[in-house]
Amino acid sequence: MGFARTCSVALVGVEGVVVEVQADLEPGVAAFTLVGLPDKSLSESRDRVRAAVVNSDAEWPQKKLTVGLSPASVPKSGSGFDLAVAAAVLGAAELIDPRAIADLVLIGELGLDGRVRPVRGVLPAVLAAAEAGYRQVVVPEQTAGEASLVPGVSVLGVRTLRQLIAVLTDGPVPDEEPPEEGRPDAMLAGLLVPGAGVGTGLAPDPANDGPDLADVAGQRAARLALEVAAAGGHHLLLSGPPGAGKTMLAERLPAVLPSLTRHESLEVTAVHSVAGLLPPGKALVSRPPYCAPHHSATMQSLVGGGNGLPRPGAVSLAHRGVLFLDEAPEFPGKALDALRQPLESGHVVVARAAGVVRLPARFLMVLAANPCPCGRHSVHGEDCDCPPSMVRRYQARLSGPLLDRVDLRVEVEPVGRAELLGHSGDSESTATVAARVHTARERAAARLAATPWRLNSEVPGHELRTRWQCAPGALAAAERDIERGLLTARGLDRVLRVAWTLADLAGRDRPGPGDVNLALELRTSISRGVPVGVGEWS
């Protein structure tokens, strides 16, 4: 009787669970049994592993073979267990030393010819292995760079099972021929999943050519709101007629955001790796992601779902980046209301019959909406054909509880002829605005250094009312709005957060009356007579 064990990792959402792969050989009729809650793709690994071992010039044991995946209560899915199953079988057959694989974590799919194919989710899998105390992992060669992002772990990238056997038996490692230059590499097919993304992408580097804020004509108030949103992480609603520039502004927001920190990059890379959206050759995502789903998106595609264990939705694909909902009133009401909890908590917990998954979802939301179905309501010089009842119903599609979580609400007016055709040159570039946003975030980070928060939008209202107070008399206008019912308790907290961001942008130690009044104007859309240029308010 032969026995060997090694390890692999099962992914539950974007979190990994180390799985012990055990192989047992006993005398009897040759058979291959796989136990431990495998799904269909994992059950088929029996045929893949057998063919890969034979085609790697190794002898397949002609005995009764049982492979167990422990813990048996955790559902296992995907083809990433193939490499670990093959190693355990070879160890049980004493073709390799069982002690050499006992503390190894092996991740990868096997082709019938013995090639090791890359799989999705390598980064979160290696992170889980490192947290469990494992220090040696074997992954497909194409994902070795992704696995190497985890500190303290020795990574071995292999191209074929034959190479792995040679390394474990201290034999000469064969040189496998790389794919011919210029020809598509079929091995990368498992990394990118067509249709898995929800209008997602990575923001361009501000230093490279890409959409620039200088392309937006006029819109001083909307540009200021965009800058405040980027500096403090505040959610934004852009309301106005078609063609006013709402989508242009939203598309340029990711480039204004600072680059991700190391910890944030690992979080974003893990989500994109699991979702099959990590570009080949790009081991680490350093720029904030941008996700813009179509307004026909379902609730499951926004918050996460799918058959079996839930997969990341748009809110997770936009983690640490921007979620842009164009034509927001056209989204299903249940889908929009499902965003309330992740907007507050920064994560989403999806419960399904197959299990409960916690997915990261700390994003900056931008909503774009027309004032009515035809888009001409309240536009000077335009005739709106929508009856008042239709206008009210259309605007009511964005529920009050959802809008109460939006810090900035700006009316985007149509651009005039002089602004559109003029060459005044007063439109600031993305680089200029990004520099101010970076400075403001540094001021906030220095103030919040000894706290668990990094952005003004994350600070609880109680702390802003007690620990970091505004200047004396600064809240007079906000107190009047509360008494008149124009501002809720949550609304006051969000006004204080925006006021602190405005103070950071202006270089002040704490918000004054001008900061609070402008924050109220940006939230309620009621004019307070405050200038909208950066640093112009007092």
From TrEMBL:
<protein>
    <submittedName>
        <fullName>YifB family Mg chelatase-like AAA ATPase</fullName>
    </submittedName>
</protein>
<feature type="domain" description="AAA+ ATPase">
    <location>
        <begin position="232"/>
        <end position="416"/>
    </location>
</feature>
<dbReference type="Pfam" id="PF13541">
    <property type="entry name" value="ChlI"/>
</dbReference>
<dbReference type="InterPro" id="IPR020568">
    <property type="entry name" value="Ribosomal_Su5_D2-typ_SF"/>
</dbReference>
<dbReference type="InterPro" id="IPR000523">
    <property type="entry name" value="Mg_chelatse_chII-like_cat_dom"/>
</dbReference>
<dbReference type="InterPro" id="IPR003593">
    <property type="entry name" value="AAA+_ATPase"/>
</dbReference>
<dbReference type="InterPro" id="IPR045006">
    <property type="entry name" value="CHLI-like"/>
</dbReference>
<dbReference type="InterPro" id="IPR025158">
    <property type="entry name" value="Mg_chelat-rel_C"/>
</dbReference>
<dbReference type="InterPro" id="IPR027417">
    <property type="entry name" value="P-loop_NTPase"/>
</dbReference>
<dbReference type="Pfam" id="PF13335">
    <property type="entry name" value="Mg_chelatase_C"/>
</dbReference>
<dbReference type="InterPro" id="IPR014721">
    <property type="entry name" value="Ribsml_uS5_D2-typ_fold_subgr"/>
</dbReference>
<dbReference type="Pfam" id="PF01078">
    <property type="entry name" value="Mg_chelatase"/>
</dbReference>
